Amino acid sequence: MTTKVEQPVNEVKDPVSVEKSDTGLNKPQTKLIIGALAVTAVLMIHLMTSYDGVQALLLIIGLLLGYTLFHARFGFTSAFRRLASVGNGQAVRSHMLMLAVAVTLFAPILAFGISFFDTGVSGYVAPIGISLVVGAFMFGIGMQLGGGCASGTLYAVGGGRTVMFVTLIFFIVGATVGAYHLPFWTEEMPAYQPVSLAETTGFGYGGAWMISIALFGLIAWITLVIERKRKAPKMAPVPSEQGWKRIFRGSWPLFAAAIVLAGLNALTLMTRGEPWGVTSAFALWGSKVADVIGFDVASWGYWQGESAAALEASILTDSTTVLNFGVIIGAFIASAAGGLFKFTRLTKGNVAASIIGGLLMGYGARLAFGCNIGAYFGGIASFSLHGYIWGILALGGTFLALYLRPLFGLSVPKSKDSFC
């Protein structure tokens, strides 16, 4: 038996069978679950025997991230789009809860250098300049055309949304080109030094935490004002199991997912010494392919210094790659558990939008020192001013993209619509 809960649909609801999921849950796809668990076991054994405990633990964290993202349909793309188009800020408020929990956990970890493997910890604090402004704005446009953000692309692929494979491929291409061009943007374009609310301003982590909480509260209040003024439609209910079964099948409340994601990001920070990230792995994957094709990737400024070793090593030595693989597999397991894994059809419009969107996101993420995860989530959680600027510029890109989506046959929510 299922019960209805108010829950948003984001950029990756499309991979599931909407007609069936809106009337009830499907039977678990047992064979797919067994296959995914077998792949996970093989990968886990390889990581534990060939590398160290860090990579194996990160795979588990990635699985939990993907599982959580899919179950809650927790999105960044749709949250920005709903706020920009019809004024619904429910999902954005879940972001504020996630960030509030994250800064609460990050503050003592960063202040006291708490880690599992004595690797040292550092947050994502990046410069503020033209590179950030251009990159974040591009990413905002790209995620609305590509149908998902960085994390959304990964868990949509895991959920079976076929067009997101196209987005991912061109996301990688864009990230690779962005890596090649990054020295120009960072060395030739104007920029200010990184600003940490905790360290640069002298407030300390306690003061930075209080400022952050106040800002999150202010943003949440603003979204409520916007909702009342625009009479925003509510989110439609999505089916879910009752009781403990809800952990495995059906929709999770956004507030629960927000707390879980913040906790998992903190675990990532303590495990590998830096927060959750996604897109640096895309640049690595694309650069390795470019190297095989014949490009002199080793001469690029992006791959100089300590990062040069990554080009020669296996991609499984890269912690972000392992996290990404975990997210995809975790989302796959979650979709199969709900009986929702199903490849979807491609159209000329959504393929074209995915190509352009993927390129914009990949390129923009390199310029902006991260994506919705590394710059927005990780940056703000690390008390970096660039994370807030990223969010503002990405929202600006979203407003522009609302006028571009119809050109590709993509829908834009209207004030009279409910979210289903």
Automatic annotation (TrEMBL):
<feature type="transmembrane region" description="Helical">
    <location>
        <begin position="383"/>
        <end position="404"/>
    </location>
</feature>
<feature type="transmembrane region" description="Helical">
    <location>
        <begin position="353"/>
        <end position="377"/>
    </location>
</feature>
<feature type="transmembrane region" description="Helical">
    <location>
        <begin position="57"/>
        <end position="76"/>
    </location>
</feature>
<feature type="transmembrane region" description="Helical">
    <location>
        <begin position="322"/>
        <end position="341"/>
    </location>
</feature>
<feature type="region of interest" description="Disordered">
    <location>
        <begin position="1"/>
        <end position="23"/>
    </location>
</feature>
<feature type="transmembrane region" description="Helical">
    <location>
        <begin position="202"/>
        <end position="226"/>
    </location>
</feature>
<protein>
    <submittedName>
        <fullName>YeeE/YedE family protein</fullName>
    </submittedName>
</protein>
<comment type="similarity">
    <text>Belongs to the TsuA/YedE (TC 9.B.102) family.</text>
</comment>
<dbReference type="Pfam" id="PF04143">
    <property type="entry name" value="Sulf_transp"/>
</dbReference>
<keyword id="KW-0812">Transmembrane</keyword>
<keyword id="KW-0997">Cell inner membrane</keyword>
<keyword id="KW-0472">Membrane</keyword>
<keyword id="KW-0813">Transport</keyword>
<keyword id="KW-1133">Transmembrane helix</keyword>
<feature type="transmembrane region" description="Helical">
    <location>
        <begin position="163"/>
        <end position="182"/>
    </location>
</feature>
<dbReference type="InterPro" id="IPR007272">
    <property type="entry name" value="Sulf_transp_TsuA/YedE"/>
</dbReference>
<feature type="compositionally biased region" description="Basic and acidic residues">
    <location>
        <begin position="11"/>
        <end position="22"/>
    </location>
</feature>
<feature type="transmembrane region" description="Helical">
    <location>
        <begin position="247"/>
        <end position="267"/>
    </location>
</feature>
<feature type="transmembrane region" description="Helical">
    <location>
        <begin position="97"/>
        <end position="117"/>
    </location>
</feature>
<keyword id="KW-1003">Cell membrane</keyword>
<feature type="transmembrane region" description="Helical">
    <location>
        <begin position="32"/>
        <end position="51"/>
    </location>
</feature>
<feature type="transmembrane region" description="Helical">
    <location>
        <begin position="123"/>
        <end position="142"/>
    </location>
</feature>
